[in-house]
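Notes from the pairing session

We agreed to fold both candidates in a single pass and log them together. This is the raw record for the first candidate, unedited. Please don't reformat it; downstream parsing expects exactly this layout.

Candidate A
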Amino acid sequence: MNTTIDTAVIVIFSAFVLGIGMLFARTGRNLKSFFAGGEAVPWFIGGLSLFMSFFSAGTFVAWGSIAYKHGWVAITIQWTMCIGALVTGIYLAPRWKQTGALTAAEFIRARLGTTVQKAYIFIFTLVSLFIKGSVLYPVAKLVSSSLNLPLVPCTIGLGFFMIAYTAVGGLWAVMVTDILQFVVLSSAVFILLPLSLDKVGGIEGFTQHVPADFFNLLNGEYTFGFIAAFVIYHICYIGGNWTFVQRYTSVDSPKSAKKVAFLFAGLYLISPVIWMMPPMIYKAINPSLTGLDTENAYLMICKLVLPPGLLGLMLTGMYFSTSASANTALNVVSAVFTNDIYKGLINPKASDKKLIQVARGSSWVFGLGMIGIALMVPAAGGIVEVVLSISSISGGPLLAPPLWALFSKRLTSRATLWVTGIGLTVNLFFKILAPLLLDFKLTRGTETIIGVGLPLLLLLGYELWARSKDTTASEYYQYLITRQQKRDDAQIESPEEALAIRKQNRFGLQVIAGSLVFTALMLGGLSTFASVGGGITAGLGGVVLLAALIPYRASQRVQLLPESQQADKLINSNH
């Protein structure tokens, strides 16, 4: 891949993304603007950012490996995310917005108390560092494999780059990068797919050279029980993961929060078919990959069929979109530490300037932790094992109780800690101790069913018991008071603060529009160098250029003057 044009594409895009982070260096006035976009982020921006944050967690390496080994079941697994997002949009996303909380941890403190919040912050931070650290590993693996560079230096260097623009720019920097990578990757895959099919001899050549069960909805260890459990898991995960909750709380209303989740669902109905076909096609071209080598299937099909320039574009999109997931988690972990630990417990009277300093500093600290985790992923069996194992162990116990508390007035802090503790203990026993002490290991499906099902059964049992006693949690009454106070405080926002938030959001939309224009020009330029696929590349460049009008027009609708001045301006213009 070591060609001048591919390297140039990677360097130019990297510099452009870092520049985006620097553009937002002075826009974060306080925690609300830095971590939640002033709670006025357009819903379509939030939805696309949510999609990229989730989509990039291992699509190319983890799901690409499953698609190569087992075929269509990789698409079936990802369709569970569509179902989870639909349920979230109907029931959960608007509830999160109605809480008035900046972060999920803030809601947990208000509804379930400080003790539960402290325990959850510790567990969430640990889990996030492991999962998102493992996501940094495939980024480094992609770059090191394509550029023939050592893995460890790549991991460290890319980790520092990832931390830099997240720590500087906050939520808007992360979201703009998400949108840019969505466009870049979508363009690259729409070029990759027809070239891959052409390489294998079309649909007929593809289907004739893969195993007979390759297009089964279920395959291998991914059974019906696993898929059913994964549906429940993704309802909890998409609806309750603190990273995604930030997307529902950063928009302007519960209705917009619904739209964020519904857009995510729509994208995950269509995109898995498009994204998973290239590694499936590579199975027909080269069926000999085994072990951790299957994690390279996506990269190998790209290197095989994409011409110079377009290969650099695809690698850049894979690199940044995968790191986008880690960036989002880094932003949320930093938000939780700054808002709920430093401000909530250590220094409640801290100034906005001090809080922003803490936010940026904590981004660096947690980012370095992610780099350390990424370096250990190969020894843990690869990203598929790490991500699925951590999810099955912590997902249900950590996510289910707060979601239950969104609807229940009976759940207490003591019951929450018991449910979480029992769930984690049982899951850890079956994952770690049972294979060592009893020579017994659960299947992937059973592991997921127990991991998600046990906390839900415990919560249901407690709810029925509390209802039979007709008891209401004392924490619930305190939560009602806190929620009302927060709503009252939100109504007295100063005109200066409201103006600053509108300026920030207008600027963010303009940067997105400019980024799309830059991407369109890049695609147009690359089309002139492409030996194959030049026409498709140029056409996609035109589509991206037209798409830039959407955020630009949205930015023009952001009012920077108070309504009274807007009215005066309109009257004067009529005269």
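Candidate B (folded immediately after A)
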Amino acid sequence: MLPPNDVEDVLSCLPQALLRVGPDLRVQWCEEGFAAKTGVTLAPGSTLLEALEPGRNLDALQRAIREQRAHSGHAITRALRQVRVQVKPTHTNGAAGAWLVVEPSGVDDEGAFSQAVREIARAVGESLEVDRVCSAAVVSLVRCAQVRRAEVFLYAEDDATLKRMAVSDLEGLDAPQDVFDPSEDPYRQALALRQPQLGIQRGYGDAVGSVFAAVPLCAPRRTVGLLLIYKEQGASFSVRELEMWSAAASQLAVAVENARLLREAQSALRVREEFMSIASHELKTPLTPLKLGLYSMERRIAAGQPVSLASVLKSKRQVDRLAGLVEDLLDASRLELGRLALDSSPLEVGQLVAEVVDHFRHAFERPFTVDVPHDGVWVLGDRDRLEQVLVNLLENAHKYSPAGAPIAVRVGRTAESARIQVQDHGIGIPGADQALVFQRFYRARNVSHRNFGGLGLGLFISHSIVKMHGGALALRSREGEGSTFLLDLPRMPAHEVRRLPRRVLVLDEDVHQEAAAERTLRAEGFEVFTVQSGAEALRKATHLPVDLIVLSTSANQSAVGTFLETFATLPRARPVPILLAGDERPWWAQDSAALCARPYRPEELLAGVRTVLTREKRRTLTPVESELPLVTPA
């Protein structure tokens, strides 16, 4: 008996879709509404392999059709929708084939969703610890829904990596974490689109071919991680299910974000309380002797007695210490607000180091050694801020080292950086603290407030300043054996250094001759200092290295003596060559000293200057330091 003509109208009323295929899996016939019911588009002549994902389920379906036997199971479509398939073999006009009854698979369980959400909410109410909240969530999902496993991955707070925080079970050989890669689909799409995505579980033992959902944990301000839900084999997710678990994931994301915010707030409060305690102590330390000193001076002045210079100097030291503490607090605040600006210009590192170390030599009875390359090491930086970093490193080295222990400062090069190394033989830094010493308000555990003052801001500020310069501040240390801090700054490109003007100091008792030499040298691109007083000239040029000194031989002994004495006491990174100007070498000059005519003749003066500078350049060495194993801040 033939079927009625309106049979397809009846089929459209049923949730199941009907399909007939041959033994080669090619479609012979499918009902008109097949795509609308199943989400799979098939046409006569196409093959099932084009519509279904490969896997065990598809293999079983193929065998049943080819072996002409009944079969009931699930298959996964190319659109990652799971469908239930029943196979009914048939023989029509001697042609083998099979009828397939296909229907969507999935569960819309409002009760399971409500129960899971309630349990997650209860866990959040009982604890705001991230680990406990995540663990409660995965257990609730497995217990309340048709879910085989649930996992929570969260972004680490300090970087963009995903770390698994909770899993419902780890039984057998099923280990999803071994193949989890957030750069692959569907994880990448879920994170990028902030929408749940379906995937197929591969390579996990008995669960091969089952479907899982990657549901992003979307808090109001950001995506905090992923919720992975693995179904039992043969089950799938309906659209409604994904909507429900997305809502549950959003609740979990908010709980995680709140837990983290609470932890950050508690940590900030602890830091604040500790800081207030330390700051109160540190600010009070200089204020107490300052107040007593001023009170003593007030009494002496009221009694008509003289005030000793020593008392004034003691009070001044306390004021300087107090000003330094306040300036550290202001710098820390500027860094937090992004308002610490740099005024960068070309800077020769060796000269800066020589100046700073020279100040420490005069202030403390301690041996300081300085080692710099013979030629200049140039960077582009803010001189005052980099001096602040060096002062902080040297103050720490002095503070934490025993009396009389040497402190060594070395300037060198790596492949692309200028490196300043400050080494002491003090108390050192414990290994567990080395990665934390650059944090704000942090002090190593072997540093007591009673014996070593400070707010714990110096290294934080120094590290921030160096980072703003595009450099790095690192350390090597061993407790009880001292510390070595290494400051790397990007070197200026060689072609830019070559364009910098060379600095010449002209010292001549005759203002007319001095002016003539200045005009000649400036016309050739030199930067010239011309001051008749040697002391004033050198003080004026102290912040940057002087490449050459042109010194008149006819100056009187008093002027030459003043110049030489001042020149010997001012900080210099390396010896400065001298070009003598006159008819003959004076008694105090070495036989190898270069000499040019005076009155100055432009060609001869320039030839003498270039000869001396070329001779010095040949003596320079430019070694490249090997990289050292360092501890750098996170």
